[in-house]
Amino acid sequence: MSLRRATTGAVLALLVLATSADAAEGPMRVVSINLCTDQLLLRLGNADQISGIGPLSRDPKLSVEAARAATVPQVAASAETVHALEPDLVLAGRFGATAAAAALERLGTRVERFRPAASIDMIRDGLLRAGDLLGPEARIRAEAEVAGLEARTAALTARAAALPRRPRALMLRADGSMVGPGGLAHAMLVMGGFDNILEHRFDPAGRARRGGDWRVELEAAIRARPEAILIESMPGAAPALVHRLPRHPALARLAALGDMAPEMIGVPGNLLVCGLPDALDIAEALLPVAERLSARPVAAAEGDAS
Q1: Are the beta carbons of 243 and 237 closer than 8 angstroms?
Q2: Cβ count within 10 A of residue 2
Q3: 252 Cβ partners below 8 Å, 6+ apart?
Q4: Each residue of 218-248: b (16+ CB within 10 Å) or e?
Q5: What is the pLDDT of residues 197-229, one digit of tens each?
Q6: How many CB atoms lie under 10 A from the CB of residue 211?
Q7: Is 69 helix (H, G, I), strand (E, B) or coil?
Q8: Cα–Cα distance measured from residue 190 to residue 212, given in angstroms and rounded to the nearest whole number
């Protein structure tokens, strides 16, 4: 064997070993260009892995990881900006910044896309997948998060199953839409012991929007006699519909019902933006209310209205 051939072989072997070691330790430079993958990266990754995340993750109205996000670099979701960081992994959402993600792939960058979570199973799958992508330490953190998620879910499910009945609830988004079946907010509503009035009393034809939110006339929804009305809140948000919604005349008239008026409950919007275990905070806050309301006599609704 010639000296040149032996040297080439040794170099290739070292490269293979180095590549294997990097793979075992996880990617060294990770960029996220999606609010939800930002938070997965912040929660599971090592600080020295993170080359950049999107600016929205610093906004506490949208992110539960705002404090941690303030300690890492921000990056715009453009292919040029991200590519300049020479990442070995980019985390992206299925929706949003799709052009940047596609351009990065054409440039040879590895991009992993995550779907929005609409259920506990999807939260678990997202955590474990992110842990696998980010390396062994992240996997351990992901498994710990999943263990906590599953324990909390089991406890909530058992308590909800013990209710004598499920009270009716309506959940209003900050933009005035209503939470219908199929999204994460609905899943938390049900896990918190309530029946979503939109699931059983309204025809979904033509109403479904992305994420399970519906547009229904508020007065019609109220005629279905919800026993609790949940209103998504965003403390600190700029003046907008989110602040006017609680003063809507249809909601204001409910006060005249006295003891029969539905419970009005504020729901922190940042807990529902992304599929993280923090969403269970909502179900845990709702369940004591459902337990109390389920002991009351059932108020008759006016029937389906759509």
Answers
A1: yes
A2: 7
A3: none
A4: beebbbbbbbbbbbbbbeeeeeeebeebeeb
A5: 888 766 666 555 555 677 777 777 777 789 999
A6: 18
A7: helix
A8: 14
Distance of CA 105 to the CA centre of its chain: 25
Pairing of strands 195-196, 228-233: unpaired
CA distance 27 to 7: 28
Q: How far is the first Cα of the chain from the last one, in angstroms, to the nearest whole number?
A: 83
CA 169 to CA 294: how far, in whole Å?
12
Per-residue tokens: 162: 């013990």
pLDDT in tens, 221-248: 777 789 999 988 876 665 555 556 666 6
Task: State the pTM of this model.
Answer: 0.81
DSSP codes joined into one string, 222-271: HHT--SEEEEEE-TTPPSSHHHHGGG-HHHHGGGGGGGGSPEEEEEEGGG
